[in-house]
């Protein structure tokens, strides 16, 4: 009987072989009755399409076609279709023998021979790369238009174009967009996948046909293809550079503007010698045309912005730019000042020498302001004909010296119509503090202070004085008292429960620092925590909180009480400190507390500080058993990319969203965050739940955990001990 089955298989395979000779569509026949689903037959069209030969294929599972760009889920679906005799059509990226990826349409068709109790699976294969390229070009053009409309930076648009192109070429292929400046040198516009050292070499590289194929493509206005770099005529220096970065082939296409003038190049660099296939160059030309589109519209946007934000008469940023940028800079929460400056002589100079002389005076004063005071974060603009505006983000204690340095740079005479004029500069200053972060109010205060300064004789600086000065002085007193407070252990820990939304059962706690100073009274965390960060005391403060939490957990453990996880907020400075993880491990070990009862809450902004180091620290925490959470999610630099890289268990929806849950747009954001957490296998926790309606809506959205005044207010740690 076994002999007959083998004979039947031979007859079927022979029939398929004869069919394959006539059948020009690529196909393979798979044996689904064997666990690994080996290929029993492949026709010549399949070998021609993939570059493999019969010995490479027969008896092998089709996974040999897979590579890094292959979607494993689609591959799994194909295997399931084969195993269950289900017909289907699938699109997947497979790889030819030479390593080239291609889009492969696979039609799965079961072949059943019930009279012989045999079955096979026919897989028709089509190379649909050209169709996919056409589709992706259309989508890429749409994405570019959308990016332009949103005001995305040119580098971001071009990098997206490069990333799309790379997906259609060999693994390890890297794309660049180089633009040519007025000095006929290349400037790197997009090259994210190239090594940083190579990008440095490329910056300001001369446009020369002998120096690089990019130079040839630009100057000769046609594709420059180097299929095998070591066999090319490059000089020793260029060969050494390319060899160091394992670049074995380079293709470069010129990028044209609307006047058929070359403005740059689109290039692809390969780690192996590589010859273009049919349609590769036409695909690159289409990509280059989309890059040209992005460049054209970006330059138009830049010109529009220049006209909108630049004072044409002086060349300085204008008031609109100053107000817009000031709003953005204030979001960073830094200390500093806003100041208006004016020269008493401006009106006299304009009246005597004309409006152009007044513009020249503003231009010269603006130039000196830009150069004065070092390289710190600074914003200078011409706010009106006679007034210049400046914002500087510096510590408040440094402001007087900084302003004096600015004034000294303006004391040198200004030459107007060949006359050296000495100016009496008046300055009005408004201090930027945590309590004063409103741009419009700061501008009003600085203008008011300038009016007072103008009432004085000669050079003068006036500060705006109101209740905000009291706040600033309080901040300074807090900073001085904080060191003593930490030594005296004046800062205590309150715990706020996290609960199950449905049952209201307490699941854990969040530890909150509270400070009641004998001298200053109750100090808000919004004041003393920033003060601790500015004065380098934040690690000491957070270690104090950790020690109190561990002591509380140990007390409960020793008394046989139920332990619940406690979340502790950790600053970026502490998180990235080399002693952070060892300290946690030592403290939990010393107290005999399992690390799983400690959760570290990190603000989401940590993802953009140093994502690689952050990933390492999170991995160490996970290794030792500590839980982790992303706090204030959605208020800063939320990104799927960093969430996927950081092994956290929880994200907390910021209370600002919950307080506006009745707004349609905010509700949609909350729903998205909850779904995002669910999709990533994370727990979403809603902060600031204060009403029964909030609770009901969150439950309907699928949120299961929350904290807020509706359930429990923060309570002293001893009071929490009773729960």
TrEMBL record:
Q: Can you give the residue ranges of the GGDEF domain?
A: 334-466
Lineage, top ranks: Bacteria, Bacillati, Bacillota, Bacilli, Bacillales
Stored InterPro entries:
Cyclic-di-GMP_PDE-like, EAL_dom, EAL_sf, GAF, GAF-like_dom_sf, GGDEF_dom, Nucleotide_cyclase, PAC
The organism encoding this protein is Planococcus dechangensis
UniProt-listed CDD domains:
EAL, GGDEF, PAS
Q: Per the UniProt record, which residue ranges are transmembrane?
A: none
> Which ranges carry the EAL domain?
475-723
The name under which this protein is listed is EAL domain-containing protein
PAS domain spans which residues? 39-66
Q: Enumerate the SUPFAM superfamilies for this protein.
A: EAL domain-like, GAF domain-like, Nucleotide cyclase, PYP-like sensor domain (PAS domain)
Q: Where is the PAC domain?
A: 86-140
Gene3D superfamilies, alphabetically? 3.30.450.40, 3.30.70.270, EAL domain (3.20.20.450), PAS domain (3.30.450.20)
Note the PROSITE patterns from the entry.
EAL (PS50883), GGDEF (PS50887), PAC (PS50113), PAS (PS50112)
């Amino acid at each position: 009987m076994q002999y007959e089955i083998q004979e039947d298989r031979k007859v079927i395979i022979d029939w398929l072989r004869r069919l394959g000779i006539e059948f020009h569509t690529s196909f393979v026949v798979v044996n689904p009755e064997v666990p690994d689903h080996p290929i029993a037959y492949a026709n010549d069209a399949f070998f021609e399409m993939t570059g493999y030969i019969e010995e490479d294929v027969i008896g092998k599972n089709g996974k040999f076609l897979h590579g890094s760009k292959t979607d494993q889920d689609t591959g799994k679906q194909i295997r399931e279709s084969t195993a269950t005799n289900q017909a289907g059509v699938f699109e997947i990226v497979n790889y030819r023998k030479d390593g080239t990826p291609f889009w492969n349409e696979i039609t799965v068709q079961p072949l059943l021979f019930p009279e012989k109790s045999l079955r096979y699976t026919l897989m028709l294969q089509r190379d649909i790369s050209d169709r996919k390229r056409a589709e992706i070009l259309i989508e890429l053009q749409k994405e570019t238009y959308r990016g332009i409309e949103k005001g995305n930076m040119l580098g971001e648009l071009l990098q997206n174009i490069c990333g799309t192109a790379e997906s259609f070429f060999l693994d390890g292929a890297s794309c660049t967009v180089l633009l040519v400046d007025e000095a006929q040198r290349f400037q790197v516009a997009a090259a994210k996948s190239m090594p940083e050292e190579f990008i440095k070499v490329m910056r300001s590289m001369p446009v020369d046909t002998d120096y690089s194929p990019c130079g040839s493509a630009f100057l000769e206005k046609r594709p420059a293809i180097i299929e095998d770099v070591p066999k090319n005529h490059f000089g020793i220096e260029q060969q050494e550079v390319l060899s160091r970065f394992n670049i074995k082939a380079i293709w470069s296409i010129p990028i044209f503007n609307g006047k058929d003038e070359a403005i740059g190049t689109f290039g692809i660099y390969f780690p192996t010698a590589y010859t273009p296939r049919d349609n590769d160059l036409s695909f690159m030309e289409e990509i280059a045309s989309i890059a040209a589109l992005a460049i054209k519209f970006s330059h138009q946007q830049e010109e529009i912005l220049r006209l909108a934000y630049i004072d044409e008469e002086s060349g300085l940023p204008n008031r609109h730019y100053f107000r817009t940028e000031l709003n953005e800079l204030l979001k960073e929460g830094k200390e500093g000042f806003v100041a208006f400056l004016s020269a008493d002589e401006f009106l006299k100079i304009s009246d005597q020498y004309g409006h152009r002389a007044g513009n020249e005076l503003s231009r010269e004063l603006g130039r000196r302001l830009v150069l004065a005071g070092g390289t710190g974060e600074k914003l200078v603009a011409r706010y009106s004909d006679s007034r210049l505006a400046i914002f500087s983000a510096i510590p408040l204690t440094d402001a007087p010296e900084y302003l004096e340095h600015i004034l000294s740079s303006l004391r040198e005479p200004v030459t107007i119509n060949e006359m050296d004029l000495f100016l009496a500069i008046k300055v009005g200053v408004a201090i930027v503090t945590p309590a004063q972060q409103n741009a419009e109010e700061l501008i009003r205060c600085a203008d008011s202070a300038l009016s007072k300064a103008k009432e004085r004789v000669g050079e003068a600086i006036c500060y705006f004085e109101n209740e905000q000065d009291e706040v600033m002085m309080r901040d300074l007193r807090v900073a001085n008292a904080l060191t003593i407070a930490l030594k005296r252990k004046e800062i205590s820990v309150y715990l706020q429960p996290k609960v199950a939304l449905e049952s209201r059962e307490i699941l854990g706690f969040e530890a909150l620092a509270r400070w009641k100073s004998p001298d200053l009274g109750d100090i808000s965390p919004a004041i003393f925590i920033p003060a601790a960060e500015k004065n380098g005391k934040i690690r000491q403060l957070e270690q104090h909180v950790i020690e109190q939490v561990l002591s509380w957990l140990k007390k409960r453990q020793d008394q046989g009480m139920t332990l619940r996880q406690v979340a502790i907020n950790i600053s970026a400075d502490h998180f990235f400190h080399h002693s952070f993880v060892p300290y946690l491990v030592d403290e939990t070990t010393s107290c005999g507390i399992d690390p799983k009862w400690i959760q570290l809450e990190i603000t989401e902004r940590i993802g953009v500080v140093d994502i690689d180091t952050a990933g390492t620290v999170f991995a160490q925490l996970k290794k030792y058993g500590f839980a982790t959470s992303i706090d204030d999610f959605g208020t800063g630099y939320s990104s799927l990319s960093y969430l996927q890289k950081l092994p956290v268990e929880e994200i907390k929806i910021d209370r600002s969203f919950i307080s506006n849950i009745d707004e349609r747009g905010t509700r949609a954001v909350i729903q998205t965050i909850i779904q995002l957490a669910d999709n990533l296998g994370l727990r979403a926790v809603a902060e600031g739940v204060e009403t029964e309606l909030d609770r009901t809506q969150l439950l309907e959205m699928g949120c299961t955990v929350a904290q807020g005044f509706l359930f429990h207010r923060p309570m002293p740690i001893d009071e929490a001990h009773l729960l």
